[in-house]
């Protein structure tokens, strides 16, 4: 016969076991990088870029929760996927106050990324909390193409795609007008912005696609997320989202903030295949 005391004790043990089991799974999931693939339509995409692949890496958060070997393994995995282009969308350091310690090895590891059309980067809020001086100084000494409030022209078979980027929405000074200065009005534009809320706050019809991270897919998701750093709720939690003017792809990211756990939001490297609206139409008609 089970007494009240035994019932309470057994219930407590079961509860503790459940918590430990969930935590253990959360630790494991945080280490299990998934490769996700998706085709994304980009308005005004030049025909030469139809089928071009972009690897999106976000939110590495190098620091106490994410060791440098995990980041190096993500770099090796990305290179093995052989994308045409790589987009790094911020939060390389775990905390702004320790960025001078966390950024150098992370950016050094990311400098081993290779892609025929280039590797491009913008900072995140964790990189910019102390004014971004450390990030700006370090990124300049790497082979990575920093796109903070600027653009670069990528050329393929004589046609041009414009890769642009903006500073962090929370701690930086994002300037889209400056980033797009000199970009033709009818050009195909892909924008890197760490925070997907930028699509709502600074919409611009010239931008065909925005690549973001920041929200970690909720990081700890059980039908809802206790933590989603967005003014727009779960809209920009993950995946392809339609913003006011542009499509936005939001990566779940690779690292963790707050707690070293993930639940139903595993770390990911995203491989996006760019497609023109005309290309999608013609393929669907075959």
Describe the structure.
The chain is α/β, with parallel strands linked by helices. The protein has one domain (32-285): Purple Acid Phosphatase, chain A, domain 2, CATH 3.60.21. It contains eight helices and twelve strands. The protein has a six-stranded mixed sheet with strand order 1-12-2-3-4-5. Strands 6-7-8-9-11-10 form a six-stranded mixed sheet. The termini are far apart. Mean pLDDT is 88; it is low at 7-23 and 281-286.
Note the gap between the termini: 71 Å
Assigned CATH superfamily: Metallo-dependent phosphatases
Strand order within the widest sheet? 1-12-2-3-4-5
Q: Which residues form runs of ≥5 with pLDDT under 50?
A: 7-23, 281-286
| Percentage of residues in strands | 15-25%
Number of discrete domains: 1
What letter string, H or E per element, gives the SSE order? HEEHEHEHHEEEHEHEEEEH
Question: Descriptors for this entry?
Answer:
286 residues; 8 helices; alpha/beta; 29% helix; Purple Acid Phosphatase, chain A, domain 2; 21% strand; six-stranded mixed sheet; globular; disordered C terminus
Summarize the structure.
This protein is 29% helix and 21% strand. With 286 residues, the chain is of the alpha/beta class.
Strands, helices and their partners?
Layout: H1 4-31, E1 34-41, E2 53-57, H2 68-81, E3 85-88, H3 99-110, E4 119-121, H4 125-128, H5 133-139, E5 145-146, E6 150-156, E7 159-165, H6 176-179, E8 188-192, H7 198-201, E9 209-212, E10 239-242, E11 247-250, E12 268-275, H8 277-285
Parallel strand pairs: 1-12, 2-3, 3-4, 4-5, 7-8, 8-9, 9-11
Antiparallel strand pairs: 2-12, 6-7, 10-11
């Amino acid at each position: 016969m089970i007494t009240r005391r035994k019932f309470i004790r057994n219930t407590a043990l079961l509860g503790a076991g459940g918590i430990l089991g969930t935590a253990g799974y959360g630790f494991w999931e945080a280490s299990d990088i998934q490769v996700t693939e998706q085709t994304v339509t980009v308005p005004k995409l030049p025909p030469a870029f139809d089928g071009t692949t972009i690897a999106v890496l976000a939110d590495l958060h190098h620091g106490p929760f994410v060791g440098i070997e995990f980041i190096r393994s993500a770099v090796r995995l990305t290179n093995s996927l052989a994308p045409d282009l790589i987009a790094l969308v911020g939060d390389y350091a775990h905390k702004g106050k320790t960025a001078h310690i966390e950024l150098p090895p992370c950016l050094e590891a990311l400098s081993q990324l290779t892609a025929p059309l280039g590797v491009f980067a913008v900072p995140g809020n964790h990189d910019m909390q102390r004014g971004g001086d450390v990030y700006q100084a370090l990124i300049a000494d790497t082979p990575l193409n920093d796109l903070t409030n600027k653009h670069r022209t990528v050329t393929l078979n004589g046609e041009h795609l414009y890769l642009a980027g903006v500073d962090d929405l929370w701690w930086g000074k994002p300037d889209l007008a400056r980033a797009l200065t000199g970009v033709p009005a009818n050009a195909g534009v892909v924008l890197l912005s760490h925070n997907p809320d930028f699509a709502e706050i600074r919409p611009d019809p010239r931008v065909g696609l925005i690549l973001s991270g920041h929200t970690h897919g909720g990081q700890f998701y059980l039908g809802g997320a206790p933590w989603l750093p967005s003014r727009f709720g779960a809209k920009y939690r993950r995946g392809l989202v339609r913003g006011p003017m542009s499509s936005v792809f939001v990566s779940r990211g690779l690292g963790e903030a707050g707690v070293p756990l993930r639940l139903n939001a595993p770390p990911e490297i995203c491989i996006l295949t760019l497609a023109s609206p005309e290309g999608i139409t013609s393929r669907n008609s075959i």
